[in-house]
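Lecture notes, unit on protein representations.

Consider one protein chain, 372 amino acids long.
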Amino acid sequence: MLKKLLIFLILAPLAGACYLAYQRYLQNPPGTLPTPYVLAPLEAAIEVDAPILIVGDRMGARFALFKENLSLELSQGLSKPLKVASLATAGFGLHRTLQQLDSLAKWPKVILYVGGSEEFAEDRFTRQQIPTLRENLRRYQDDEWRTLLMLLPEAGRLLYTPFQRLALPATPAPPPADRGEDEWPVRQELTYELFRIELQRLFEEARRHDSLLIVVTSPANLDVAPKRTCQIARDPASDAELAAIREMIKKQDTKSAYQRAQKLAQEGLGHAEAFFVAGQLALRLGKREEARDFIHKAQAFDCVPWRANEVTNSILRAKAQEERVPLYDFAAQVERDWGENTTFFDSLYPQDLYYQRGTQALALVLKRLLKI
């Protein structure tokens, strides 16, 4: 009897642990990424009758307006023109671009990804998911777990803490306008991390389908101010100081205003408007590199993320270098003329001249890589 009791005491916890592990396995979907959302499958496979495909968000859709230029540049000296198609769609974050690619009947020879400007166009997770999502992302970033996932993808169903995934609609729905500002910093942090791991999946899928992937950074208008500074970065003293600096600007006391704006930006905790004003003043004084750095920070700390910024572009550059994926730095090309020429058509899109230059530069890269 005692022996049976001892066996029971040993086996019961083991059986309980196995049961819990089995339940965890059932509740987690297949896959190695801890994505907090679910997208309904598209109704039909997507047919693309072109060897070159542009994908991405509104920046990709804008770039695609010049796809005939790219085709002409690539086709010089060829007996048959190379066609360029586009699936780039305004409002599509990288997660929806990946869904489009997953639905392709056949991957094209070349994929041009032009995006990163609308990663906040819709919510990919709820407030309630945040603690579990953060923990699952931490586990995914662990090198030992990543190695296990590479060797055994099904391990993801045991690794991650299960949660109810957010079912996304067929078309993106904008986030609620009345969201509390306290939620934005952590939402930005997690969305950028999701962008990073989705980008990793894009690279892996392109390799698996033997497609040449080229990623393109998205320019942001450095002359357009951030929409709002987050409340957490503001206080009465910083607001009063910024108001005083603006009064000095009106009186054309640029040098003194710059010194105070520089100090406010450097001492503040992510004060987007202070960074922007410091950048404008630095540019007036001919300090272009410093001005660019300040305004990049202003865009990154904008409490209403609505466009591409240096965070998404830096992620693109770093991941492309890490994975040895070709990158065309369109943002850097446009920024080289900032302060000297009118670089943007409006708040979002560069002048057509830069797209024409961009297609010429991409054509040279593609000719070299494709040996045509």
